[in-house]
Amino acid sequence: MSIPSEWTFKDRKVAEAFDRHVREQLPWYDMATGAVAHFARHYVPNEGVVIDVGCSTGNVGRALAPMLAARNATLIGVDSSAEMRPLYDAPGEFVARDVRQFDFQARRPDLVICFLALMFVPVAERGALVERIKDSIKPGGATIVFDKFESRTGYVGTANYRLTLAAKYEAGAAPEEIIQKELSIAGLQRPMREHDLKGFVEVFRFGDFAGFVCEKA
Fold first, then answer.
1. HSE on the CB side for 121, CA within 13 Å?
2. For the structural domain made of 12-151+179-215, what CATH number should be given?
3. CA pair distance 94, 5, nearest whole angstrom
4. pLDDT one-digit tens code per residue, 173-213
5. What does pTM read for this prediction?
6. How far apart are CA 88 and CA 62, in angstroms?
7. What angle do CA 106, 147, 49 make, to 5 degrees?
8. Beta-carbon contacts of residue 135 (< 8 Å; ≥ 6 apart)
């Protein structure tokens, strides 16, 4: 894939190459998807509602499909890139909308999944969005966030970041593509901070990427 100088999911070529690209750049992608599906099935009741934020081509939806069918549950995929719509291959509805303008409360979800999505939300608006999502969840439900986080301090933080780089290289990503991608997302992809997720519990980690769950009492 030709990586644009300014990263965007609204580039048709980026959308079409997304599935291959993301697995090359994030070798643990399928393992993390499996973890999301595992935790999701603990919070979706019969006839429940799931919202997949940053759904792209429907990766999370495909992983949840058997459970959704068995429980007659509804899936709503939300993505800011309309270019992803013709590539979306998962159950349920695709909504092309900036997540900051999406009305979560009106959908009354049992589960909201933010899979590699919040790091593209401006920092100034991220905290309010997370709280709005949490408030919309029905009692007994949950919010799942898997995302990139700021590197930990000290030398262990350097080693942790290099773990991610090594995994990309070993998965077949060309060194020049790794560098191009890092420069392309500068300022557009801002890693999360753990204190952005008040009330969340960590359930997954690989390098600078981690997964958290917050239950609604």
1. 25
2. 3.40.50.150
3. 28
4. 888 888 888 788 887 889 999 888 999 999 999 888 999 99
5. 0.87
6. 10
7. 25
8. 105
